Hints:
By secondary structure, the protein is α+β, with helices and mostly antiparallel strands.
Amino acid sequence: xxxxxxxxxxxxxxxxxxxxxxxxxxxxxxxxxxxxxxxxxxxxxxxxxxxxxxxxxxxxxxxxxxxxxxxxxxxxxxxxxxxxxxxxxxxxxxxxxxxxxxxxxxxxxxxxxxxxxxxxxxxxxxxxxxxxxxxxxxxxxxxxxxxxxxxxxxxxxxxxxxxxxxxxxxxxxxxxxxxxxxxxxxxxxxxxxxxxxxxxxxxxxxxxxxxxxxxxxxxxxxxxxxxxxxxxxxxxxxxxxxxxxxxxxxxxxxxxxxxxxxxxxxxxxxxxxxxxxxxxxxxxxxxxxxxxxxxxxxxxxxxxxxxxxxxxxxxxxxxxxxxxxxxxxxxxxxxxxxxxxxxxxxxxxxxxxxxxxxxxxxxxxxxxxxxxxxxxxxxxxxxxxxxxxxxxxxxxxxxxxxxxxxxxxxxxxxxxxxxxxxxxxxxxxxxxxxxxxxxxxxxxxxxxxxxxxxxxxxxxxxx
Length: 463
């Protein structure tokens, strides 16, 4: 810049005062033009500074010079450049920005005022940072995204059934050798993992022990006709004792008051699991540790493998007169009751409906089971209750395509809240059965409160 002003001084000697003033005007035209380009909305301040500097330069140029000092002219121009560079005015408060100014990129005021073709080009071509606001996902998109997070790890999907089947085989072989007189059917596995409905982790599975009864010696009595007045429980009565006295059936040893006792059968099997089976040896063969749960009313085995931890629950099961009855007596003094299970019918019906209309009932069920599993207050709603709500809704809502998943999901929440308000969820297969009968009033209130809040903002259940 100093060289620029030095050259301008030499031209002043040759061209006179008029050319100096014209030249200075051209210079400041360039300066002001570049100031507007560089400074944008603050160009007004720069314009004031430039105007003041021009006035002082002209005053100095037209004032009499000292002819005896050859450097006076150049000194005067250099002082003018210093004035221009050093004059500072207090910043003025910025003007209120217009809406369209908000999208304009801010340019640095610290650029040199001398026009530089490369500098100006760089400024004009500077990339503008555009902020793209985050798009809000719809409930449909959130549900589909959440469903992808519910997948069971592949190692568990393959290893858990393999371990459980091996244990199942060892247990059946033991009971055949230890109690050959008891006609158990072929043991088999059951549970959501085997039906493709498991979520998050495969850490539990059911082992079914079929109890084979002679239909001519046993009959079923509905729980409605017993002291419990519960249609979901059944009693298995020994009949024709006059013609076929005790001992004719191998299961007579488990009779209490002419009824096959689920409690006595469970106690006998529990003793065998705890005291008679060499689980360390079996675990050593399978590469895992197996421990029977001693302090449990249920028949349970805990399995620890290097890659999985598994809980296996054993259920003696009786199939008679199209009923599937589990040896799960209710808490209390009644020990002869058997619980009717609808699991096989539930899964079969849901898959049948989905196959008929390419529906997303199973997907919706997996999402709801995942929610119930991850939220302790909703844990008892998972599985059978949610499945029955979906089956009830399928009778009235025909569109179960994946594109309508969000609508059906919200409808299921609304139906659940309505059932909880009544305290009654009728079984899809037997309306006399209330699937909420085993819940405490406090549990129903807590579940209803959580789901009622989620009706207006279902996304909170996916967090």
